Amino acid sequence: MAIFEQKKTRTAPSNTQGIIPWIRENLFSSPLNSIMTFLGIVFLYWIIPPFVQWAYIDANFSGTTREACTSGGACWVFVKMKMDMFMYGFYPQNEIWRLKTALGLFIVLLVAFKFIRNYKISFLLLNIYFLVAFILVNGGFFGLEHIPTDKWGGLMLTVVVAAVGIICSFPIGIIVAFGRASDLPIIRSICITYVEFIRGVPLITILFMSSIILPLFFPEGMTFDKLLRALIGITLFQAAYVAEIIRGGLQSISKGQYEAADAVGLSYWQKMLLVILPQALKVAIPNLVGAFISLFQDTTLVLIIGLFDLLAMVRITAADSTWLGMETEGYVFVTFIFWAFCFTMSRYSQKLERQFDTNLR
Amino acid sequence: MSENIVEIKNLNKWYGEFHVLKDINLSVKKGEIIVVCGPSGSGKSTLIRCINYLEKFQEGSIVVDGVQLSDDIKKIKAIREDVAMVFQHFNLFPHLSILDNLTLAPIWVKKKPKKEAVATAMKFLERVGIADQADKYPNQLSGGQQQRVAIARSLCKNPNVMLFDEPTSALDPEMVSEVLDVMIELAQEGRTMICVTHEMGFAKKVADRIIFMDAGQIVEENTPQEFFSNPESDRLKLFLEQILSH
Ligand SMILES: Nc1ncnc2c1ncn2[C@@H]1O[C@H](COP(=O)(O)OP(=O)(O)OP(=O)(O)O)[C@@H](O)[C@H]1O
Ligand SMILES: [Mg+2]
Fold first, then answer.
1. Shortest Cα distance from B111 to chain A (angstroms)?
2. Which of A148, A238, A347, B245 has the greatest count of CB atoms below 10 A from its CB?
3. A153 three-class SS
4. Pairing of the two strands B83-86 and B67-68
5. Tens digits of per-residue pLDDT, A121-145?
6. Are both A204 and A254 inside the same structural domain?
């Protein structure tokens, strides 16, 4: 009778491990692959060293005036001197502490969320934060000077537009998605019409409509804040996309989940909010974050209706007669900020996905 | 007027043009165990799903525990608090832990304090023998364990009527008996049960009556003994031959 003998484990053959075999397998596996690798290297060589030379090696960091920029590389002095403009637009210099306080409180809030496990308290804190932040930024209460929204600008405006757009479009999108999946024909057709209308129109058009056409319907003399109009337009726009993404998530939930929720006696809203939505959101997270990243980038369009977001600040600051021709530095800086924000969101999305996933396994 | 806990009269249902249920009459007494069987597509699931109004019907009446079923949301709610259902594919909520699956409805529907809901849930998890899995998620359990959780979930509202729709037919053979054992215990406790199942061993052991359906009609209705030894219709004879032949 054969006796079972456990075989000793051996190390893998050395020609399949390590960096050289990896390069051979992944970069030079075929002639075409080799050519692509070669072209790629040439391209990087062509782009990166000159950029590093310009942006770092030859760049000027110190000084306070244009005259300090002598070495021929990037003049970061410009960005440094105009930093407040990039960040806060035309917000009055001696009120900027209010924005910094709002930001500081936000960081405190994020840290607090790490420790607070009770969702109700978290939600309450978040709402209190929004109220406090609004009072701080907008003023008009507690002796804080009112700062009209045409003074808002720069990164702060970009963040306000994106945050309001994301936060407000989310619940609206959920309700529209529910409406579209509803059994009631009237609600369903209203939701379908809304979504299909918005999706057929570019954001620019919606911004124009909300800033120019909408006021025509208001009674004479009634003014309506320009920023607020833009926010409403962007929220309605984004809500349609959120609704479609969530509808996709809803469709992935099996009929059995609805039936089980009905059978245990949950009401319609309990069923949707406690059973269906959490599962649908989990499926929808990657697409939702994708849509929110697009929205963050699309906020640059508010320039069209005369609001000065981060991107618009480049043109304004570079039009300053002492800093003429500094657009390149400005655009590189702004690009980096946009990238940093979007990359963070994308990373956060991956983290959320993993978190939800472990919950289910 | 009657001790009938479920009273179905002249029930007719159509899916579009398709007549699924034809003139169904069925009365179930409190504590009775009814087994429903029949070929695939005969309308068994549809029938028991009408009882907790997962399906609407066009004609006839269903009275459960004195409540006449209708579109009225309050009545539907009352019925669903009284009637529990166990599904073929378990339909546990995958995003909630086992314990949360059990306490969800008691907390939100019956507004029970969390502590009380947890205590009840643990009691029933113990009953079905999986109290040690309370903190896991449904996908971490075997099919048999999931179905036992589903049974425990349905017990949490202390239902007067329990509906089972082929509770064992999605299970691997070695898990069938662990679920049937739990069901047999429930039957012996005197709960009213209406089970769609082809587990004839179970039917023989606990059923008070077996109902045979075909093409949307109740063809025969009898005690287990008579049902197996003296099938009247040819249709049932053929059916029994098929399911008992192997
Ligand atoms: N939503 C629906 N729309 C249209 N027809 C349906 C629907 N649900 C079920 N049917 C049809 O109704 C008939 C009865 O279905 P039902 O699910 O009640 O059968 P069943 O006896 O439970 O069969 P099985 O043993 O396969 O579960 C079948 O012919 C089925 O195709
Ligand atoms: Mg069925």
1. 11
2. A238
3. coil
4. unpaired
5. 989 999 999 999 999 988 888 888 8
6. yes
What b/e sequence results for B24-44 when a residue is b if at least 16 CB atoms lie within 10 Å of its CB, and e otherwise? bebebeeebbbbbbbbeebbb
Whether B161 contacts B6, CB under 8 Å: yes
Give residue-wise pLDDT tens across range A198-250. Answer: 999 999 999 888 888 777 777 766 677 888 888 999 999 999 999 999 999 99
Q: Verify whether ligand 1 is closer than 6 Å to residue B216 (CB atom).
A: no
Q: Among A114, A91, A118, which residue's Cα sits nearest to residue A102?
A: A91
Contacts of A108 (CB under 8 A, 6+ apart): none
B109: which chain A residues are within 8 Å (Cβ-Cβ)?
Answer: 264-267, 270
Does residue A342 belong to any structural domain of this protein?
Answer: yes
Nearest to B80 among A262, A279, A359 (CB): A262
Q: Which residue(s) pair with B63 in the sheet?
A: B7, B68
| Interface predicted TM-score (ipTM) of this complex, two decimals | 0.92
CB A172 within 8 A of CB A245: no
The residue range of the domain holding A40 is 18-57
Probe target for ligand 1 pocket from B11, B13, B15, with the most ligand atoms within 8 Å of CB? B15
Q: What is the CATH number of the domain that holds A302?
A: 1.10.3720.10
The total number of structural domains in chain A stands at 2
